[in-house]
Amino acid sequence: MKKKGKMTNRDLTFLLITIPVVLLFFCFNTLPLIKGFMYSFTNFKGYGDYDIVGLRNYIDLFGDERVRNSYLFTFKYAIVCTILVNIVSLILALGLNSKIKGKSALRGIYFIPNILGGLVVGYIFSFFFTYILPAIGQSLGIEALSSSFLSSTSKAWIAIVIVGAWQSIAMNTIIYISGLQTVPEDVYEAGSIDGVYGWKKFKTLTFPLIMPFFTINMVLCMKNFLMVFDQIMALTKGGPSQSTESISYLIYQNGMSGGQFGFQSANAFVFFVVIVAISVFQMGFLGKKEEQL
Amino acid sequence: MSKEKIRAKERVNWPITILLILGCITIFFPLYMTVMIAFKQPTEMTNDIAGALALPKSWSLSNFVEAMEVTDFWNSLGNSLLLTVATVVLSIIIHGIAGYAIGRNKGEKKWYNIVYLYIVSGMFVPFAILMMPLVKQTAQMGIANRFGVIVLYTVFFFPMNLLLYSGYLKNIPMALEEAARVDGATTWRTYWSIIFPIMKPMHATVAVLTAMSTWNDVMTPLVIMSGTGKNTLPLAQLNFQTQFGTNYNLAFASYLLALLPILIFYIICQKQILNGVVNGAVK
Predict the structure, then answer these.
(1) What are the chain A neighbours of B11 within 8 Å (beta carbons)?
(2) Which residue, B142, B147, B120, B123, is CA-closest to B220?
(3) Cβ contact B132–A255 (<8 Å)
């Protein structure tokens, strides 16, 4: 059918489909990426003239306390959230996959947080943390709860973790459930003959078999949490005193309206490299573990 | 299998069932709080917990009427619907056929494999880095509006949808297409009459995943459409918050209105949505 050097009709059709979509993709994904990279070598404010400043933005980036704090906060948030979400999701998934009454209704309910928008959920929780939780704390006499989390520089991040986790647990639970359903029943039967129960059953039988799903969840979680924006916007706007400023929020805030277009472009590029590095590392590392098991 | 064993298999695990039902409180409590506050008048909001959580004195819809007016609810809802529907339709049409063209060739032709990897790696590009150049670019092109946002969504969801479609195509045998080709159908016709209908389950998954991300997205319309005076539902809440943030009853009525469309949609299409999400995540 196919002759070398001569293009068939079929090949031509494929080419005519592929070229426009690749161009479109280039125009709105790769081109802005390159432009952002180029802006990162300038002192562009977002308007007016600008000069090329070489690597100065990148050098300044490492000395900038606000940028450093945003990285510290974002990583603290992403790591705590990823661990918390995966533990809770796995427990929930094990529960929702066992022999319970009203299984599909319960699964449906536990997925609700995922369909709701992060911004509105953030506003609702903002009220909860500002008024309800302190009122509960005061009436129970628990001092740690009796003032608002959101106005404390040391505790505001916990509130954001709770809201972020509340929404993400839904998604990760569903993925773990579909993972648990791939485990064949006879594996457990064989296990019970050998007297493997409880934690040991989970550790030696269930968990190794759902390892691929663990990998997906870890990578998805980490990537999404590192890009946290909506919850910050709704709950704290980066405060109090910039203690909850995520990298995305800082780039938005200072790059779009703070006159730091060039500088934040450098920040964004470093952020991009960090995200790629972490995702590649995670997939490589967890992929290797999968092979061993 | 002995009778006893069958019975053990069927036995309902009540402790876990009860724990899971109790756990639902964590899901319903925020929603309950939203409904209660949304129906109350500001005078009913005392400083204790009951002020916020007790049932309202009367179930008046006045907060909702006012919130609809202040947030321009119907227009925001219309914009959100327009963005979501247009993005979903374009994704299914464009990403489907691109997935076909690239997926069918990437095994044999190096060039298509490079294209595939190039686009899929776009998944790792965070919006934060594209944001600032895109604001400039869309303004220069004159598409810093709803149309521009739709174009951007179509580009942003391409990597994931390409992955989904080309993954699904692996399970569709070439023999089906070859039969059509022998009958004289062009590749273009073959796609629309044979492949496109077969990929229906994947269209559903793509539709669900794309719709959920589009509907709830704040950042893209926030930075691209800010000059147009047009709002999406989440954006309306953001603007509302900066203007009327202190009237909680009005604010919560507005939040509830913003949550209702997707909640209703979820209740109707729960099964399809869950299936779609699982399909997408596992692939």
Answers:
(1) 99
(2) B147
(3) yes
Which of B101, B152, B259 lies nearest to residue A17, judging by beta carbons? B101
Tally of structural domains, chain A: 1
Test mutation, B6, B10, B11, B20, chain A, max A CBs within 10 A:
B20
Chain B residue with minimum CA distance to A210: B282
Report how far Cα A92 is from the mean position of its chain's Cα atoms: 20
B149 contacts in chain A (CB < 8 Å): none
Give the tens place of pLDDT for each residue, A162-204.
999 999 999 899 889 988 888 887 777 777 777 777 787 887 7
**How far is B233 from B245, CA to CA, in rounded Å?**
16
Within 10 angstroms of residue B244's Cβ, the number of other Cβ atoms is 16
Q: Which of A14, A124, A261 sits opposite B132 (nearest CB)?
A: A261
Q: Look up residue B67 and give its two tokens.
A: 């919130």
Q: pLDDT 10s digit of each residue in chain A, 293 long?
A: 444 456 678 888 888 889 999 999 999 999 999 998 988 888 888 777 888 888 888 888 888 889 999 999 999 999 999 999 999 999 999 999 888 888 888 989 999 999 998 899 999 998 888 888 888 888 888 877 777 888 888 888 999 999 999 999 998 998 899 888 888 877 777 777 777 777 878 877 888 888 888 888 888 888 889 999 888 988 888 878 888 899 999 999 888 887 888 899 999 999 999 988 888 888 777 766 665 55
**Residue B166 CB: number of other CB atoms within 10 A?**
25
Q: Is B97 in the A-facing interface, judged by CB distances under 8 Å?
A: yes
What residues in B contact A99, CB-CB < 8 Å?
A: 9-13
Q: What is the end-to-end Cα distance of chain A in Å, rounded?
A: 45
Please tell me whether residue B142 adopts helix, strand or coil conformation. coil
**Residue A285 resides in a domain:** yes
Structural domain for A125, as ranges = 46-292
CA nearest A88 in B: which residue? B23
Q: Map out the domains of chain B as residue ranges.
A: 13-60, 66-282
CA distance A193 to chain B (A): 13
Per-window interface: B 37-96 vs A, CB < 8 A: 37, 47-49, 52-53, 94
Q: How far is A52 from chain B (nearest CA, A)?
A: 17
Contact B188 A268 (CB under 8 A): no
Residue A190 lies in a domain: yes
d(CA B73, CA B237): 10
Establish if A117 belongs to a structural domain.
yes
Task: Name, in order, each residue with C-beta under 8 angstroms of A279's C-beta and a sequence gap of 6 or more.
Answer: A219, A222, A223, B124
Residue A228: inside a domain, yes or no? yes
Domain of A255, CATH number, reads 1.10.3720.10
The token pair at B72 is: 């321009």
* CB contact (8 A) between residue A98 and residue B112: no
Q: Are B44 and B252 in contact (CB under 8 A)?
A: no
Are the beta carbons of A121 and B30 closer than 8 angstroms?
yes
Give CA angle at B84 (B78, B88), nearest 5°: 145
State the CATH class of domain B66-282. Answer: mainly alpha
Q: Between A and B, how many residue pairs show a Cβ–Cβ distance under 8 A?
A: 245
